[in-house]
Write a structure and sequence with these properties.
about 425 residues, alpha/beta, Rossmann fold, Serine Threonine Protein Phosphatase 5, Tetratricopeptide repeat, DNA Cyclobutane Dipyrimidine Photolyase, subunit A, domain 3, 3 domains, 5-stranded parallel sheet, about 45% helix, binds flavin-adenine dinucleotide
């Protein structure tokens, strides 16, 4: 009987999943597979990933299928299972990262029909090309124009049935000791999405930079693991162009990564800069003890939640790169380790943007953290939430404790003199 393996990677959902739907449409057997590769540890994302897999398995079982789990090298295990079930084809969602593309190249070299489908972005990376030539857009605004006006594929419902072969060993989900700070999976993503569409989306444009208000969707970990389809999200959120624009940023960095797969290692645009080796400053930055409250608040939010507000990400990244003079790769690696939404394209794309080596059209721009705090955390509520040493202080003191005649006990003096002219 015709049998297809659907290799799941970072597309952990049943709704709007083109590869899964196409496999089910063939009318034969469908073997949904996820391979846990010990060589690609998910770090702090492990608990979230395991939640996603448990939820996906439940959804597939409800459709009379299953999620088959194997451990080892993805290609080896996929081919082993293909031999076991006599698979005619492997279906997967096309990826842009170096790791993902190596996997695809290796599978393409095997004696099996590999078919790649869209699904990780709203518009497939590489689908839009600048009219003046080139294989990708280097600047966001023209990409946004082409992206917003372009045709889209239709959003797909979940398949009505996923007919798995009988008698195949499903494989156990490993236990994970520490519970993730956020529940992973498509079910949790839909719950968050429903609340967001009803209560958050409307005020997004005004509230997205309000650090203390926490008025962004917090859907990024779910998008990272594909628990929600970015295309469906763009459709559902169509009434708020500012929000849709952020989804376009995500697509933008994915198409940059497709064209420049070394984005997490090499400068996209080389810019002569001498980085400083400053291990103590880097340790303080990571621990949230730089003595610059808005920076410390952001870094402590990252440690506590595995997530950080976008405005804070910009401030802390700018501080590391432009104030401490430390290589963006050091910051990107730390973010990548800790963020639940840590993703090569978005993480490295944004770090390079801040460092002036990426797609920014104003590469020399430097942010003043105190001004940023005054503007985006006017009551210092964000600072006081994450830096308890400053909790009882009036806003102006919490923002600039070095102005006080006496030092705040337990809170460090700033690492670097803050340049107040900017
Ligand atoms: C230095 C730095 C590193 C970053 N690293 C990552 C990362 O590893 N993974 C990640 O998903 N985002 C990253 N971002 C982008 C952004 O900060 C997060 O996507 C956003 O804060 C997630 O919160 P949210 O879901 O509430 O966003 P919302 O404001 O609700 O936006 C909705 C979605 O749009 C996308 N989006 C929003 N802003 C951006 C952006 N600037 N670039 C690309 N996509 C965006 C995200 O998928 C997000 O979930 C980084 C930004 C900076 C400045």
């Amino acid at each position: 009987m015709d049998t297809v393996i659907v290799l799941f990677t970072r597309d952990l959902r049943v709704r709007d999943h083109p590869a899964l739907s196409a496999a089910c449409d063939r009318g034969g057997r469908v073997v949904p597979l996820f391979v846990l590769d010990p060589e690609v540890p998910a770090g702090h994302r492990t608990g979230f990933l395991l939640d996603c897999l448990a939820d996906l398995r439940e959804s597939l079982r409800a459709l009379r299928g299953d999620l088959f789990l194997r451990r080892g090298d993805v290609v080896t295990e996929t081919m082993r299972l293909a031999g076991e079930v006599g698979a005619d084809a492997i279906y997967a969602s096309s990826d842009v990262s170096e790791l993902g593309r190596r996997r695809e190249r290796r599978l393409a070299g095997e004696r099996v029909d590999l078919r790649l489908f869209p699904g990780l972005t709203v518009v497939p990376p590489g689908a839009l090309r600048p009219s003046g030539g080139g294989d990708h857009y280097r600047v966001f605004t023209p990409y946004w124009r082409a992206w917003a006006g372009g045709a889209r594929r239709a959003v797909l419902p979940a398949p009505s049935r996923v007919p798995a072969p009988p008698g195949l060993v499903a494989g156990d989900l490993p236990a994970h000791a520490s519970r993730p700070v956020l529940k992973g999976g498509e079910t949790a993503a839909r719950a968050r999405l429903d609340v967001w569409l009803r209560q958050g989306l409307n005020g997004y444009a005004e509230g997205r930079d309000d650090l203390a208000g926490d008025r962004t969707s917090r859907l990024s970990p779910y998008l990272r693991f594909g628990c929600v389809s970015p295309l469906e999200l763009a459709d559902l959120a169509g009434s708020e162009p500012e929000f849709v624009r952020q989804l376009c940023w995500r697509d933008f960095f994915h198409q940059v990564t497709l064209a420049f797969p070394r984005i997490n290692r090499d400068d996209y645009r080389s810019r002569p800069r001498r980085w400083r080796d400053a291990p103590d400053a880097v340790s303080a930055w990571k621990a949230g003890t730089t003595g610059v409250p808005i920076v410390d608040a952001g870094m402590r939010q990252l440690l506590a939640e595995g997530w950080m507000h976008n405005r804070a990400r910009m401030i802390v990244a700018d501080y590391l790169v432009n104030h401490l003079g430390v290589d963006w790769r050091v910051g990107a690696a730390h973010f990548f380790d800790l963020l639940l939404d840590g993703d090569v394209a978005n993480n490295s794309g944004n770090w390079q943007w801040v460092a002036g080596t990426g797609n920014s059209t104003r590469p020399g721009r430097v942010l003043n953290p105190v001004r940023q705090a005054r503007r985006f955390d006017p009551d210092a509520a964000y600072i006081r939430r994450y830096v308890p040493e400053l909790a009882g202080r009036p806003a102006a003191e919490a923002r600039e404790p070095w102005r006080l005649s006496r030092r705040v006990s337990g809170y460090p003096a700033p690492l670097d003199p803050v340049d107040r002219r900017r």
